[in-house]
Amino acid sequence: MAPKFARSVLVTFFEYGTAKVLHIRSKKVGIMSRFVQLLVIAYVVGWVLVYKKGYQDFDNVEGAITSKLKGVYLTNLANGTLNGSRVWDVADYVKPAEENNAFFIMTNAIVTPSQVQSTCPENPSAGNCTRDEDCAGPSPVTGSGIRTGNCINSTKPGVKTCELYAWCPVEYGDPAGGKSTPLIEVQNFTVYIRNNVIFRKFNQRRRNIRDSGGEGYLSSCHYDPAHPEDLCPIFSIGYILNTSESDPEQRELMLAQGGMIEITVTWDCNFDRDPSQCLPQYQFLRLDSRDAQDYPGYNFRYAEYYREGSTDRRTLYKAYGLRFVIVVSGTAGKFNAVPLAMNIGSGLGLLGVVTVICDFIVLNVLQKRSFYRDKKFEDVHADDAYKPLDESGEHDGASYGAAVNSDP
After folding, report:
1. Whole-angstrom Cα distance, residue 274 to residue 94?
2. What values do phi and psi take at 211, rounded to 5?
3. Which of 79, 244, 294, 348 could crosslink 284 through cysteines, CB 3.0-4.6 Å?
4. Which residues pair with 57 in a beta bridge?
5. Cβ-Cβ contacts under 8 Å for 106 (sequence gap 6 or more)
6. Is the four-CA dihedral 255, 257, 258, 260 of positive or negative sign?
């Protein structure tokens, strides 16, 4: 076994293989070859160069976002935690006043006014008690304060709860936000989204407002998706809400319980054209789940502190509303000879695959594959060819013989 292997290694070492050009005069093989070549050319030209713009260099967008809201609303409610007349402006319903690439609008709230640090009964929704022993032990982290260890009457008749040392009175209200929307008119408010972007590689700066809009341009325009060239970055909250959620009942729940909406500003630009044609596109997508049963929507708490005489007090707000997250994305392209040459070179290299595919079909699939294989592969023995010996000491005829001639 070993001598045979050694002879095979020596035979291979002392031989040289070269490609043989074989012209096959066949309609079937010729059509197959041209078809595969056409597929490769179509891929390189149609997909790589045209669709994927393989003749361009690309750069990702970088940008910054600022937002400003406008709108004033009057509530005059007879029931609930927002009793009486009250004017709501930007400072009331936008909390916090400034965020990075985001903003929040309060659309509903549970308000607990005039809280003071004292002792008071826990909210019955947090759990009941029947005796002082039920209130012993550490205070739960989900409670409203620190337990004193006493079980006392709550604000609900016939129900006892644990006494707390806390900001009193504790918060009461529907934890799901209910279906009331005291600030439903926020749909008529507007938000001004200012976006400045740069494509560093091409030294191009763009923004989503006109460079010279004249007096009153931004005070009178509203975004129109049919005319993006107007470059008006002022959107009504109702338009964003309707675009991101088509179901009216779901929109009502979002106003009552809160929700999250993503605003995407996309800059896909071709700087082989006039840079003024580089315009932003806007998309609006609801992020929170429509089917959430536990903790739906979006809410958080904040407080306003003040002092009456020598007593510190606060008004606690549990704010439900819409949180908008703004994302900037996009790419720009410009002609560059380097990627064009690289893609054309890669395409020429792919044409070599045509020969591999066609050779495989001709030599292994077609009916005359044996005939073509004999024509394709030929052994030529020169006078100084290596002549291996078999085990008996004679020349191995399987590896050495006369030159093989093939008739045309």
Report:
1. 39
2. -75, -30
3. 244
4. 334
5. 92, 93, 94, 95, 183, 186, 317, 319, 320, 321
6. negative
Residues 353-384 as b/e (b if ≥16 CB within 10 A, e otherwise) read ebeeebeebbeeebeeeeebeebeeeeeeeee
Partners of 281 in the beta sheet?
266
Structure-token match 């606060």, residue found: 314
Which range (4-8, 201-205, 263-267) has the least confidence? 4-8
Q: What is the dihedral of CA 254, 255, 258, 259, to 10 degrees?
A: 40
Q: Which residue has the higher pLDDT, 181 or 301?
A: 301
pTM over cut 0.85? no
How many whole angstroms separate alpha carbon 373 and alpha carbon 368? 9
* 3-state SS string for the chain: CHHHHHHHHHHHHCCCCCCCCCCCCCHHHHHHHHHHHHHHHHHHHHHHHHHCCCCEEEEECEEEEEEEEECCEEEEECCCCCEEEEEECHHHHCCCCCECCEEEEEEEEEEEEEEEEEEEECCHHHCCCCCHHHHCCCCCCCCCCEEEEEEEECCCCCCEEEEEEEEECCCCCCCCCCCCCCCHHHHHCEEEEEEEEEEHHHCEEEECCCCCCCCCHHHHCCCCCCCHHHCCCEEEHHHHHHHHCCCHHHHHHHHHHCEEEEEEEECCEECCCCHHHCCCEEEEEECCCCCCCCCCCCEEEEEEEEEECCEEEEEEEEEEEEEEEEEEECEEEEECHHHHHHHHHHHHHHHHHHHHHHHHHHHHCCCCHHHHHHHHCCCCCCCCCCCCECCCCCECCCCCCCCCCCCC
d(CA 285, CA 313) in angstroms, rounded, equals 40
Q: How far apart are CA 8 and CA 301, in angstroms?
A: 84
pLDDT in tens, 270-290: 999 999 899 999 999 999 988
User: With contact defined as beta carbons under 8 Å apart, do 272 and 56 qualify?
Assistant: yes
Taking residues 374-403, report their average pLDDT.
60
Residue type at position 176: A
